[in-house]
Specification:
By secondary structure, this protein is an alpha/beta fold. It has two domains: 138 residues, Rossmann fold, CATH 3.40.50.450; 32 residues, no CATH class. It is built from eight helices and five strands, in the order βαβααβαβαβααα. The protein has a five-stranded parallel sheet, sandwiched between helices. α4 links the parallel β3 and β4. The mean pLDDT is 86.
Length: 186
């Protein structure tokens, strides 16, 4: 599995041991780590083109990753929240790690089945992260292809254009509505 990892660059020096341990544990759980964003945006980078290129690369890595892992202990920085939101918007499972007493209060209010919240310390990080990876594997979307008639395809194209909803999102919402109504399914 490909994992995108990010953590606060501002607090990098104080937390580098945690960050390195997280990366090593991800690798130990058969995850291929996509480049850490701390290398995409060096603290001293003042050139706008470096920032633009780094942002584009970050978006590309989130797209390519099977899931994302964020060390988001408070106080974190603006970019961590933005990256979490991007990953969620792309439908990617997200593991949000935080140390005891450093829970990211605003983001903890997000109710999304694709987020796995993990409070950890250095003694239990390996166990907690391994459990979170198992959870992520269970919530990943699975590609499902099927054939439809031209009439159904025309309707789905119309929905996409007029309602500005992707066809897959529309179909998923129909199925989810039926799942909620079905009393025998639970």
């Amino acid at each position: 599995m490909k994992a995108y990892f990010s953590a606060s660059r501002y607090y990098r020096d104080q937390n580098i041991d945690n960050y390195n341990k997280i990366v090593e544990m991800l690798k130990g759980n058969d995850c291929r780590i996509l480049e850490n964003t701390s290398r995409l945006f060096p603290k001293d980078s003042s050139k706008i083109e470096d920032r633009v290129n780094g942002y584009k690369k970050m978006l590309d890595m989130i797209d390519k990753a099977d899931f994302s892992v964020f060390e988001a202990s408070f106080p974190s920085t603006l970019h961590i929240g933005h990256e979490i939101t991007l990953a969620i918007d792309k439908g990617k499972p997200v593991i949000v790690l935080y140390t005891k007493g450093s829970e990211p209060m605003l983001f903890r209010g997000i109710q999304n089945d694709k987020i796995v919240w993990v409070e950890y310390n250095l003694d239990n990080l390996e166990e907690k992260l391994a459990e979170a990876i198992v959870q992520v594997k269970n919530i990943q979307d699975v590609r499902f292809n099927f054939f439809v008639s031209p009439q159904i395809l025309n309707f789905l194209d119309w929905v996409a254009k007029e309602r500005r909803i992707p066809r897959s999102v529309f179909l998923r919402s129909l199925i989810e509505k039926e799942m909620k109504k079905e009393k025998e399914y639970k």
